[in-house]
Structure prediction request, 96 residues.
Amino acid sequence: MGHYKDRIDARFARQEAKGVSKYGQTLEQNPRPAIEALEYAAEEITDFLMYLEEAKEKIEKMEALIKDFNEKINRDLWTAHGLKMIWNKAMARMEE
Prediction:
């Protein structure tokens, strides 16, 4: 079985154990009304959306840092290349 599925299965097991520990029953044993279950699910989805926004913001910051880093490396490489060319020209003139 794929490792993604293994991780999902493990997460399901952890969540079920957490629910039994917290509420003393499995989800199937919960007698709450369906509308309450839907409201709870909506709250969970809202939390999920918050986590998505957090992750997007962090990725955008990382991408900006990587872009800046790449630009600096390219600039430094061109500078180093330019200095090497100047050095080589100077050495060639000294040999003339």
User: Anything to note?
Assistant: The mean pLDDT is 89. The first helix runs from residue 3 to 23. Helices lie at 3-23, 34-95. The radius of gyration is 29 Å.
